[in-house]
Amino acid sequence: MEIKYKTQRLSMRFFMLMLILFLLQIGFGLLLVVQHTDPTVMSGTLNFNVARAEHLNLGILWILAGFIGTILFVGPLLSERELAAPWLIKVLFYAFIAAVVFNIYTQGLAAKGIAGWWKGQPWLQEGLEYIEAGRIVDLVVLIGFGILAYVVLRTFPKVRVWNEIHWGLGIGVVALMVVWLFGLFFVPRLDVQEYFRWFVVHYWVEGVWEVIHISLIGFLLVLLFKVDVKSVGYAVFWGVTLVWLSGLLGNAHHYFWIGTPEFWQFWGSLFSAMEPLPLIFCFWHIYLDSHQNSKPLENAPAFYFMLGSVVLEQVGAGILGFSMTFSLTNLWSHGTWITPAHGHLALFGTFGMLVIGAAYFAVPALRGIKHFNQRIGKLAFWLVFIGILGMAVAFAYGGTVQMYAYRTLGLTWFGGDILPKMNIYGIFVGLFGILLTFGAVLMTYDLFTMGRQSNLVQVLDDPRAARPTAASRWSRPLTGFEAGTWLAIMWLFGAIVTFGLLSFNLDQVRVEGNPVIPYIMAAIGYPGLLITALLFVRRFLASMEARTDEGEQRTAKLPA
Could you give the count of Cα atoms lying within 13 Å of 303 in the half-sphere of its Cβ? Predict the structure, then answer.
């Protein structure tokens, strides 16, 4: 792909910043693994709670940088003209860096109890999980979202000619700014403050980010497979619609245990159960859009990460999110390692994998590279994909043991009673985390040095040359029925996981203290989910890699 508009190049700086912040976040994550095993590591210098806050905040920030970079790259293509006010984009970039540096520094003040109170507001850091940043950073971020919304809306054509992707991104960039407002004031009552905090965390990520995610997935598929934008508009429209319809009251699953009325336990459970609907639709979205024709897969790493995004969204946000958000399961899983099992796949898996895929699509175009060695990106994908899935399963196993120890046996002393029971799972989290780290470093090296690797890596003249020439059962065309079967199997193992969490309500477990049923369910459900996801992605990608120019020509000759 050749760059048509000069202002698209402004996206490069955000992609590069994204990669740096991603590696920094991983560094904090590895430190957390070490501190969990030995809590004295860096105690008093960089305590566990501060490192955890840094890890969470950087996860949000690097994904935001990737979102901005992707939107700036596709914006001119959607609008068929240059980005409006490019100087504002440069201001946005430096403001973003300033906010990141200030936020990283001020999180350390939490250990000293310094929030920077003035005029009833915590200006340096506020200590609210996921949105720990102080009011100074909040205002800078709000201005940044305002700049992004202004640039995008000014760049887009008149509203009367918008297609579904224009609407999805247009609503998304405005909602980024509007929803953020709910986190810009301090409320003394904790239960009311939690209402507004979850307005930001849930609607911002599980609502606004999902809308942007579906819209970008749609347009990137248009660019990857060179299809008509109208062909993905239907999927984008229904995906965005279902996100809003299911996600609004689905926010109530965060209200179970903060002193709110009891009716939220029913309604929150009901609408939370509906939240996987748009995720299932997104799964079909990528299958149908990528199978509209038999065009060869020219940029494999970009598609690998995009497919990984949708599958991990299904597993992490859909299946694991579904299993832990009923009040009868959340009663036991809340505050345990079950949450990071869901969170790592839902946040990094869904949004992080997407922006990495977008970077693999944009960077070669921005650097004028027509063909590049795709094997590095493919290897990086599998290391990252297996690493994050393995971490989630290790977290889930540890969380199951933790639920039994905390909620059934009533053990409270983490260091003496619970840590020995969970240490083995913490070690597995670290091992899979190291695997992910290798993939992230390889991916960062690949994207940073792409176009300058001639002395180190052989550049392929034709990315299609490595495709298998002989078809096999594994690489035969993937039908919709088979894709649906894979999806059903994933949800079957998800049902086993859900019943395992529900079994903590049984007298045999809750009263008698017998963990056999939940342990067996976990031993079947989580590995089954991991293996099915891995095999499905391998099957999907093998069928895509087997495409040839001849297959494309045969498809073109079929009668309409």
Answer: 24
